[in-house]
């Protein structure tokens, strides 16, 4: 049975799934397995300890008790910025990431966020398709993230931008 719960940065489950996420992202970026050095740089460049309390939220999806996916949001200037959206390869295709994002959208609305925004890369084609299917729209770059080449935003204030229904 799949469950979604609030994760705590720095715990074994959260660190494990975030490390796996970064390993995949770095490997896909370079087109080969990530080296230990590259992973160390990514871990230093991509902290997530602020995804708790007033500054953010981290969600973990579990299947049979094991963490199989994660997604986080940072609350920045009235917006919620999505980060660390990842599902283990063995758990993909079951809508887990979609459910995590919808849960983050609800949390963002509860905290008064005006929009969800994120940056990603075009080589993460599955992610781009999912974001577009959830109503995110392509926007101009809102940060100088060196590894991103796509930026998305979803308005949470307009009735026209409400969460899609369906599985």
Globally, the shape reads globular
Structural class by SSE content = alpha+beta
Strand order of the largest sheet: 1-2-3-4-5-7-6
> What value does the Rg take, in angstroms?
15 Å
| Strand proportion | 25-35%
Number of domain units? 1
Give the integer mean of the pLDDT values: 92
Helix content: 25-40%
- CATH-assigned fold name: Aminopeptidase
- The CATH level-2 architecture is identified as 3-Layer(aba) Sandwich
Q: Any idea of the CATH class?
A: Alpha Beta
Number of helices: 4
Q: Ends: how far apart? A: 16 Å
* Order of helical and strand elements: EHHEEEHEHEE
Query: At the fourth CATH level, what is the homologous superfamily?
Result: Gcn5-related N-acetyltransferase (GNAT)
The overall strand count is 7
Low-confidence sequence ranges = none
Largest sheet: 7 strands, mixed
Structure in words:
The structure is a single chain. This protein is an alpha+beta fold and 167 residues long. The chain has one domain: Gcn5-related N-acetyltransferase (GNAT) (Aminopeptidase). Helix content is 32%, strand content 28%. It has helices at 12-30, 36-45, 96-110, 125-133, and strands at residues 2-6, 56-63, 66-76, 79-87, 115-120, 137-138, 150-155. The protein has a seven-stranded mixed sheet with strand order 1-2-3-4-5-7-6, with helices on both faces. Strand 2 (56-63) and strand 3 (66-76) form a beta hairpin. Helix 1 packs across helix 2 (36-45). The radius of gyration is 15 Å and the shape is globular. The relative contact order is 0.14. The mean pLDDT is 92.
